[in-house]
Amino acid sequence: MFKKILIANDGSEGAFKALDAALRLAHSHKAQAHMICVEETQWIPGSREEVIGDKEIADRKFAEVVAKSEVEAKHHRVKLISHVLVGHPVPAIVDFIERDGFDLLVAGFMGHSALYNRVIGSTTDRLVELAPCAVLIMK
Question: Above 50 in pLDDT, residue 13?
Answer without folding.
Answer: yes
